Amino acid sequence: MRDWIRGRLAAAGYVVFNTRSSAHYAQDSLFTTNSDHFRGDPGFRAAYARGLRASHGVDPRHEWRVHVALCAAELAARVPGDFVECGVNSGFMSSAIMQRLDWGRVEKTFSLIDTFTGPVAEQFSGEEVRAGRLRVVEEVMASGGYEFDLGRIEENFAEWPNARVVQGVVPEVLAGLGIGRVAFLHLDMNCAFPEVEALEFFWERLAVGGVVLLDDYAYYGNGELRLAIDGAAGRLGASVLALPTGQGLIVR
Ligand SMILES: C[S@@+](CC[C@H](N)C(=O)[O-])C[C@H]1O[C@@H](n2cnc3c(N)ncnc32)[C@H](O)[C@@H]1O
User: What is the structure's pLDDT at 19?
Assistant: First the structure.
């Protein structure tokens, strides 16, 4: 009976997936039956687990995003320059990256920049407010989704002496940090203005072969952010690879 139904639907141009089977990836706005083999890799699992430790066990179910970030960071680790993340929260992604790269042995600094008081409402454009982006982050904040305890943040990163936690507002804080050449820039502030400003600030510092990973570039509902990044990328002569995870990738 099931095969008959499937056959009839296929003849009508539909494909049916059993979403309870393990033969697909379905999380974080991404559904695919392509291979998600990386999820079984012990190195990936260890990095993901370290990310979860940073987020106090709260699992955002971002496995494919983390997979992309780990690969991008591995590429960038071969390039001269330091690592920077703007938008750190409790350190989920950056901790996974540092675990994967055995960061204590890497001769680079990872600057982890965040207000640690949540997003800056005044930085949202009228279009972003109308599109509901400010409301979304305010809801996240109200539900306790952002980490405000700097002590806990510093404790999380304490195992890596070459991790540098910076509390400040992007872009204002950037010029005073003395950051030179950059190999890896992760932008994850969920707001167009600071992401564009950070991209423009770091572009001249980005080494050839350096990587910019934009966490929310093509993510559902983030059209204003994408348009703003596209504008900046156009001015800088860069092109952004939109990924099905919702991330965007630039290689200099
Ligand atoms: C989505 S969270 C970052 C998630 C993080 N990358 C992770 O791996 O879990 C966004 C963060 O951006 C920070 N943020 C937003 N606007 C900022 C700004 N202008 N300057 C610094 N941090 C900002 C917020 O405080 C929040 O912690």
Answer: 65
